[in-house]
Design goal:
Length: about 270
C-alpha cells in the first residue's frame, strides 16, 4: 500500500516518515510541504536523517493524491480540510490527526467521509484510547458526587487549547455521565469565578518546554480522588497509531472512523 505524507517536514510529519521507513511494510509514495518551503526537493528519507530513497519532498497535493492509496495528514485544520476534500474526491482514504477543528470543520470531515474512508482522531496512541474507555467507566460508576477536572500539558509550540485529547477525554467523561460535554464544559477559569458548580467538567491547559503530551483526568470526591493519567514521552506513539490506521483503513467502506474503530474498542 502506498502512503502519502502531508506536512512531512512538521514534527508529526517527520515522526510518520520515520515510522513508515522503519520496516512498516508500507510504501512511501511521497510527501509534501507548503509551497516555497525550504525542504522541497530534498530526499524524504534524508529529511529524517536516513539514507536516501530517491523520492523528493514536493508541494503538489493533487500529484500526491494521484500516486498514493492513502494520505496521512497532521497539519492545520484549514489544510486538513482542503487535502481531505482533494483525496476523497479521488476515492482515496485519509488518516487525519490534526486537532483544533471547530464543529463546522468536524461536520465537513464527516461529510467528506461519505465519499471515501476518513479516520480522524485527536490522539492516535493506543494508551490514550484505552484511557478514554476507563474514563467513561469511572465517570459512570463514581457518579455526580465526584467533580471531574481535566488537566493537560504540552510543548510551547502548541497552538490550540484545551488539547484535542483533553476534549476527547471530556467527551468520554460526559458519555459516562450521559450528558452533553458542550453544556457542562468549563474551559478556563479566571478572576472571581465563584464556587465550582456541580456537574461541570473543567479543563486546564499548561504550555511549556518540549512536553510531548500529558493528560490527567481527576475525579475529586469528598475525602478521596481518583486520578487517571497518560504521559507521552515520544511522538512515535502517535505515528505508530497513524500507520496502524493506514493499514486498517484499506478495503473499508466510505465512513467517518476514529481510533476506537481502528483498535476494535468501539
Ligand atoms: N492525533 C494525534 O495523535 C496527534 C498527535 C500529535 C499532534 N497532533 C496534531 O497534529 C497537528 C500537527 O502537529 P505538529 O506538532 O506536527 O505541528 P507542526 O510541527 O507545526 O507541523 C505542522 C505542519 O503542517 C504544515 N502545514 C501547514 N499548512 C500546510 C499546507 N497547506 N500544506 C502543507 N503543509 C502545511 C506546517 O508547515 P509550515 O511550517 O510551513 O507552516 C508544519 O510543518 C496539530 O494539530 C497537533 O495538535 C495530533
Amino acid at each position: 500500500m502506498k502512503v502519502g505524507v502531508v506536512a512531512c517536514a512538521g514534527r508529526m510529519g517527520k515522526a510518520i516518515l520515520n515510522e513508515i521507513l522503519s520496516g512498516s511494510g508500507l510504501i512511501l509514495a511521497g510527501g509534501i510541504v507548503r509551497p516555497g518551503h525550504p525542504a522541497i526537493g530534498q530526499d524524504l528519507a534524508q529529511l529524517v536523517g536516513r539514507d536516501p530513497i530517491g523520492v523528493a519532498v514536493g508541494d503538489d497535493a493533487a500529484e500526491l493524491v494521484a500516486t498514493a492509496d492513502v494520505l496521512i495528514e497532521f497539519s492545520t485544520p484549514e489544510a486538513s480540510l482542503r487535502h481531505a476534500a482533494l483525496a476523497t474526491k479521488q476515492g482515496k482514504s485519509c488518516i487525519i490527526g490534526t486537532t483544533g477543528l471547530d464543529a463546522a470543520g468536524e461536520a465537513r470531515l464527516a461529510e467528506l467521509a461519505r465519499r471515501a474512508p476518513i479516520v480522524w482522531a485527536a490522539n492516535m496512541s493506543v494508551g490514550v484510547n484505552v484511557l478514554q474507555g476507563l474514563v467513561r467507566r469511572c465517570a459512570a460508576t463514581l457518579g455526580p458526587d465526584f467533580d471531574i477536572e481535566i488537566v493537560e500539558m504540552h510543548h510551547r509550540h502548541k497552538v490550540d487549547a484545551p488539547s484535542g485529547t483533553a476534549l476527547a477525554l471530556g467527551r468520554s467523561a460526559a458519555e459516562g455521565r450521559k450528558v452533553d460535554l458542550d453544556a457542562v464544559a468549563d474551559r478556563g477559569r479566571d478572576g472571581l469565578t465563584g464556587p465550582r458548580e456541580a456537574g461541570r467538567i473543567g479543563f486546564a491547559a499548561m504550555r511549556g518546554g518540549d512536553v510531548v503530551g500529558d493528560h490527567s483526568v481527576v475525579f475529586a470526591g469528598a475525602g478521596e480522588r481518583v486520578v487517571l493519567s497518560h504521559l507521552a514521552s515520544d511522538r512515535g506513539i502517535y505515528a505508530r497509531g497513524a500507520v496502524r490506521a493506514a493499514r486498517w483503513v484499506i478495503g473499508k467502506p466510505a465512513g467517518f472512523y476514529g481510533m476506537q474503530d481502528v483498535l476494535g474498542l468501539s
